[in-house]
Amino acid sequence: MRFSSRRSFLKSSGVVAAAACVGAGGLAAKPLSKPLGLQLYSVRSLLAAQFDATLAKVRADGYTVVEAAGYYDRTAADFRKAMDAAGLRCVSTHHALSALETQLDDWIEYGNTLDLEYFVCSSSGGMHRDPAAKGAPTLDDWRWIADEFNRIGERVKAAGMIFGVHNHTPEFALIGGKLVYDELLRRTDPKLVFFEMDAGWVFASGHNPVDYLTKTPARFPLMHVKDMIRQPDGKELMTVLGKGSLDYGPIMRAATGLKYYFVEQEQFEMEPIEELRLNAEYMRKLNA
User: Which residue segments constitute the domains of the chain, with CATH numbers given?
Assistant: First the structure.
């Protein structure tokens, strides 16, 4: 999912070349065995207009598992019924940290009704330990956020789900010589907090997803799969998988702890369902 409004694209600082996403040792390539997954934010406008029909189209494109990003004013029972009717399995969901700070019990109950496996913080929302603070979070703020992740993770684990953290680009800020993402990995308890790597935003931030996946693969059971094209103004334009800068062969080979991946596309040139079908074809043909 996109950081902040998700309508304007963030400038990356020193985006690595496409060649940076190559190589993951000598691992043998083979077709992906994981179920084809979709982050439902990709079809947010369609769901708002035609919820059940859009789910049916998603399934017809070949997707079998999904990750929720909002529930469209449906009760948990109704949301699950719609998933079952479409032949989809909702295995994960997204909530902003601000919502988890104030409504954690409610969303845990909702998630249990859906029989979710994973429960993910979509964004820290630039939160500060001091609500009156302004500007970008400091390193101490991020460390407080990591501690909150541990606290929330303990609650989610007790409820029978696994808590995780999804990244955008702010997690790759360098503050006082410390890379925020590294601090989050270091400070969070692996027994309580996993990381859902958004490979596109890792790449856009100037880092190689393979490096993190190779170092601690068990911490990354979920992944967002998206592709981007660098624009002359330095922004990243979302595109169909295989047409942008990311090569998912080596990324997927390095993701040895992966349980589910979710295709996510936030901008479309053609009809969204058609482009999502092309994304599904790319993933089915991918040798990883």
Answer: 18-22+34-285 (3.20.20.150)
